[in-house]
Design goal:
3 helices, 29% helix
Length: 108
Amino acid sequence: MAAAAAAALSGVCDVDIDPDGVFKYGRRSPAPLASAADIYDQVAAELEPRGFRCRCLGGGRISHQSGARKIHVYGYSVGFGRAKHSISTEKLKARYPDYEVTWSDEGY
């Protein structure tokens, strides 16, 4: 069963961020997502039909400056609290190894 779960998870993207700008944690959609709850609803709608149970562990914001090759993770979600930015930055560093990726608990 663990092998099946690992195989299913291998098809789930760890990181999917906008190419530039400041945005809330989440995935890109055709229209801007207004809140962490919107992002959660979108991701859960994609994953739950595939057998995954979803739970939001917090949120924040991401500043992505592709020209400068910098990503900064910070802040919190009003509805879900602060994510563990250290974990988020590790995922981002794996996806963007040639970037400077930083985080802070400061800001909203």
